[in-house]
């Protein structure tokens, strides 16, 4: 019995050492694992790590992962190590759905670090650009990707219609939908990029660097708010003045 305890303790120790080494590596460079996977064109690792933030596997996030890997390789190796601090690498994404999470995870361009620009166009497409360079690359999904998904996992789209679109699935069907989504995502990544994507050289319209705004205090709710986000007539925040927009499943929606 003691030997088993010692063996288990040894396993735990080794596991702890390996995990500590990984944590230290990521402490120094939080995007080290993504960078390595990008350089090796390891789509599977990128897909798994993307699912950590997206929450599940699906064709949409897989397309975002693949489009980002494709686009960043076309831009060059320097674009695979962006940490978002200087906002030099930008991703202009055209849909606020699963695809966008694949783009954010793999490229490191996120809403929070101001390197992700969202254009409310409803297209499975992303443009990667580097400040100071005239040309960027736009990657868009071919419509044929749906046929590949349907052929590889015939159950996926019928389940999607029932579970997601109609909100009428049973618990068993919801479980099956998640499983088929995983199958579909990993089936897509086996296809050549050119079979499901088109790459175009573009001259992108790039916004200025994100400004650092002063803070103000709303006289109505007393909360701190960016001075650029107050109603000029009343000095109140947009929430109190009932003048704001939000990004939701339908896109950018006026809430005034």
UniProtKB/TrEMBL annotation:
Coiled coil: none
Database matches in InterPro entries: FmdEsu_dom, tRNA_methyltr_O
Xref: Pfam families: FmdE (PF02663)
Domain Formylmethanofuran dehydrogenase subunit E: residue ranges: 53-197
Identification of the protein by name: Formylmethanofuran dehydrogenase
Originating organism: Methanofollis aquaemaris
């Amino acid at each position: 019995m003691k030997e088993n305890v010692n063996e288990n303790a040894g396993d735990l120790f080794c596991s702890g050492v390996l995990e500590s080494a990984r944590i230290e590596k990521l402490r120094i460079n939080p995007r080290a694992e993504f960078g390595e996977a990008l350089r090796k064109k390891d789509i599977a690792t990128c897909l798994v790590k993307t699912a950590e933030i997206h929450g599940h596997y699906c064709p949409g996030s897989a397309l975002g992962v693949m489009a980002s890997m494709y686009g960043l390789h076309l831009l060059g190796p320097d674009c695979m190590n962006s940490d978002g601090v200087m906002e030099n690498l930008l991703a202009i994404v055209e849909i606020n759905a699963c695809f966008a999470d694949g783009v954010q995870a793999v490229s490191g361009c996120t809403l929070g670090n101001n390197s992700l620009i969202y254009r409310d166009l409803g297209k499975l497409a992303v443009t990667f650009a580097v400040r100071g360079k005239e040309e960027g690359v736009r990657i868009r999904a071919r419509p044929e990707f749906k046929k590949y998904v349907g052929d590889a996992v015939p159950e996926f789209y019928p389940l999607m219609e029932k579970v997601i679109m109609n909100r009428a699935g049973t618990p068993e069907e919801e479980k099956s939908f998640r499983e088929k989504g995983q199958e579909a995502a990993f089936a897509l990544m086996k296809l050549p990029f050119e079979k499901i994507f088109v790459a175009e050289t573009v001259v992108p319209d790039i916004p200025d660097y994100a400004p650092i705004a002063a803070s103000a205090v709303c006289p109505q709710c007393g909360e701190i708010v960016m001075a650029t986000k107050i109603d000029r007539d009343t000095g109140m925040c947009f929430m109190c003045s009932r003048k704001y927009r939000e990004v939701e499943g339908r896109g950018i929606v006026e809430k005034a």
